[in-house]
């Protein structure tokens, strides 16, 4: 089954707003180092603007760089296909499952996740799961699945402040060779959605427009490009 999931190639550990030396990134890098010794499992807990999805994307990209097979399942995108999307994933080295809370309480999904967890639990495998709440707050109806979700390490990630988002935008622009001033970043935050994925999509648009017009990013140029 072809799944409609793509990996943003600029969402890496290096571009994570917490930085490569953050607790989250250091923990995940260490998990790869111990992969051959034992099964590695981490549960990421945070709201939609915490950057947890970024860490899942980055983990799959890191796996590819290590020559490992990987798959990202964004449940917001694949939930409609049913729990059978988990079949066969135990042959991979790294599996990342985003937004688990979307299927909490669904009997078919819970049983499939529990069975997948048991099949995947062996040395050489890394499982990363994210949700907006801690396992015992998800209203999981299958006690054995809730128990499995509490294995390993749970990392609670705080939501990004406006300062974090502005810094993340300027850093991401810099990685592309694009100069985005603090004033421009804050202008985007005040005039557009504060959703980080939406802001990064806007940055893509501005990047292309800046290259085409051979213009620096200024507030007047941003207004004209985005018709604000």
From TrEMBL:
Residue ranges constituting the Hda lid domain according to the UniProt record: 162-226
InterPro entries to which the protein is assigned, alphabetical: DnaA_dom, Hda, Hda_lid, P-loop_NTPase
Name this polypeptide is given: Regulator
A Gene Ontology BP annotation from the UniProt entry: negative regulation of DNA-templated DNA replication initiation
Residue span, Chromosomal replication initiator protein DnaA ATPAse domain: 83-154
Taxonomic source organism: Pseudoalteromonas ruthenica
Name of the gene: hda
């Amino acid at each position: 089954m072809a799944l409609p999931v793509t990996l943003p190639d600029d969402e890496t550990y290096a571009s994570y707003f917490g930085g490569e030396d953050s607790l989250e990134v250091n923990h995940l890098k260490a998990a790869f180092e111990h992969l051959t010794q034992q099964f590695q499992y981490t549960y990421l807990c945070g709201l939609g603007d915490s950057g947890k999805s970024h860490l899942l994307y980055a983990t799959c990209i890191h796996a590819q760089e290590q020559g490992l097979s990987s798959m990202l399942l964004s449940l917001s995108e694949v939930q409609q296909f049913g729990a059978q999307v988990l079949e066969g994933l135990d042959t991979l080295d790294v599996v990342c499952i985003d937004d688990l809370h979307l299927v909490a309480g669904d009997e078919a999904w819970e049983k499939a996740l529990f069975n997948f967890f048991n099949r995947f639990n062996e040395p050489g495998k890394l499982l990363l799961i994210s949700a907006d709440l801690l396992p015992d707050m998800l209203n999981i109806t299958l006690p054995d699945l809730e128990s499995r979700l509490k294995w390993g390490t749970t990392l609670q990630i705080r939501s990004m402040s406006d300062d974090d988002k502005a810094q993340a935008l300027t850093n991401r622009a810099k990685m592309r060779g694009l100069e985005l001033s603090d004033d421009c970043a804050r202008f985007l935050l005040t005039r557009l959605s504060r959703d980080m994925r939406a802001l990064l999509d806007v940055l893509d648009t501005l990047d292309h427009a800046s290259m085409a017009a051979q213009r620096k990013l200024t507030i007047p140029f941003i207004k004209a490009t985005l018709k604000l």
